[in-house]
Automatic annotation (TrEMBL):
<keyword id="KW-0812">Transmembrane</keyword>
<feature type="transmembrane region" description="Helical">
    <location>
        <begin position="36"/>
        <end position="56"/>
    </location>
</feature>
<feature type="transmembrane region" description="Helical">
    <location>
        <begin position="62"/>
        <end position="80"/>
    </location>
</feature>
<keyword id="KW-1133">Transmembrane helix</keyword>
<feature type="region of interest" description="Disordered">
    <location>
        <begin position="1"/>
        <end position="29"/>
    </location>
</feature>
<feature type="region of interest" description="Disordered">
    <location>
        <begin position="90"/>
        <end position="111"/>
    </location>
</feature>
<protein>
    <recommendedName>
        <fullName>AtpZ/AtpI family protein</fullName>
    </recommendedName>
</protein>
<keyword id="KW-0472">Membrane</keyword>
Length: 111
């Protein structure tokens, strides 16, 4: 990417930034990172809780707790990603409110 100089800051030092080029490219980085974080939470939860279930299965002589642990880990991963705000639908900069669907307050002008 080409480099460009910014205006000098108040303390008379100039900084160099990367030219983003396409504004849509800058807004899409967060979606990819959020997707990787959601994937990590879910897979990590499944692995950790499956191992805990496997250990309890071996300790107690059962065979079903590992499955319960996997389901608990997946649910916990979804919960964590939701609580961290990673599952919200993001809108692009050029999208109007009409493109997102009906209003949330139920007031529509359709007759």
């Amino acid at each position: 990417m080409p480099l460009r100089k910014r205006k000098p800051s108040p303390d008379n030092t100039s900084s160099v930034s990367h030219d983003a080029g396409d504004p849509a490219e800058a807004s899409n980085d967060g979606g990819y990172n959020a997707g990787i974080a959601v994937f990590s939470y879910i897979i990590g939860g499944i692995i950790v809780w499956s191992l805990i279930g496997w250990g309890l299965d071996n300790l107690w002589g059962t065979r079903w707790i590992v499955l319960l642990g996997a389901l608990l880990g997946a649910a916990g991963g979804f919960y964590l990603s939701h609580m961290h705000g990673l599952t919200k639908q993001r809108t692009s900069a050029g999208e109007s409110s009409a493109d997102r669907g009906p209003s949330k307050d139920g007031n529509s002008n359709a007759k």
